[in-house]
Amino acid sequence: MPSDDDGDKRRKRHKKKKMGLTVERYGGRLLYMWFGMRFLTLMRLFWRGRFSFTLNCIPDTLALFLFVPWNTPLTWISEALYKKKAESLPLDKPPVFVVGHWRSGTTLMHDLFSEDPNLAFPTTYECFVPHHFLLTEGTLDHLAKGLLPKRRPQDDVPVGFDRPQEEEFAMLMLGQGSPLVTMAWPRLGPADTDFIDFEGVPEAEVRRWADAYMWFYRRLMLRHGKTLVMKTPPNTARIKLLTKLFPDARWVHISRSPLKVFPSTVKLWRALYSAQGLHNPPHCDAWLDDYVLDLMERVTTVYERDKHLIPSENLYEIRYEDLVKNPIDSMRAIYEKLRIEGFDEAEGPMRAFLAERSDHKVSSYKMPKDLTQKIAERLKPFIDAHGYREAVDAALAEPDLQSESSSDPKVPEETLS
Description:
The chain is of the alpha/beta class. The protein has one domain (9-415): P-loop containing nucleotide triphosphate hydrolases (Rossmann fold, 3-Layer(aba) Sandwich). The chain has helices at residues 39-48, 58-63, 68-88, 106-114, 124-128, 133-136, 140-144, 168-173, 203-224, 239-245, 258-276, 285-306, 320-325, 327-338, 343-356, 369-378, 380-385, 389-397, and strands spanning 13-18, 21-26, 96-99, 119-120, 227-231, 250-255, 315-319, 361-364, 404-407. The protein is globular.
């Protein structure tokens, strides 16, 4: 597991004095995302943690009530204006799903797709305020943009309400099951893990989740009117459901060496549990490593089991390592295989995007040998299926080393997810 000193100094653990109390934010400060919930959904979230706030989180928690009470009346107005249009909208443009485990390169892929003027994507505002973005996007997001940091705390990726975002956050704001709810009460351990693939979730809850997803998707289509590129890592294990909802969808699966993904994912959750937790510090070290490895094994296993449900002509698999060697040629091949039109218009903006990100620094880690061995054993099928056996064997042959920093001049790790 990465230590608190790994990576860029800007992402070290921060302690900020607030009202005489210490607030610990691993990686820095980030606005609470819970402001996008409706009042009763937020109360259910509080009850779920038995209101176990720590005093240092009370000011930020109280600040939620400046926003949350407005979400319900704004939803009523938005639905009065747009519900009929959204529900009658023909869904004749199948989405593109970008999937892969967290920190495998899904954000990089999503960002590249977002440069295509012929495609659309859910924005951060739409995912954090799903109930009424049709009414308020373009107004409230501009008024509130000063509340966002310039970069994400875990990896320095630029932040903005107009940036591409994972629709999993919208499902969370809509009160649906998601493993992301662990961020609220990390001291209580992992929550809603079964919603990663719906194994063990009652069928009625799965139907409610699917209905909420389609509710949000229809309003995205009404807002954008273009083919949507949807990116959420848990969707990697939701092929069985999503292929029923979208039988003609195109899929891009991106993989990356698990020896890179594991420590980066641990760092991701440390940062988000610290930034979003309603009690602080999160005290998650006792279970975090096992949780990350369990989810890696579960997500990759279910993906390999269910990917046959996607027609072969609608699935493109790529390794992150191959994508960054030649991102433009890789994207061209994806467009050709999946029959996505307009690459010539997208190529220039994609090149400009890559040029802007070329000078970012990245972090790299050398894990303890016993942890490397554990990952190699648990993820053996994935390692063999995606061509990582040589890299894993080489890592096992190396002596134990401390974390070190390096830079990649082509495509930065900060664009990963």
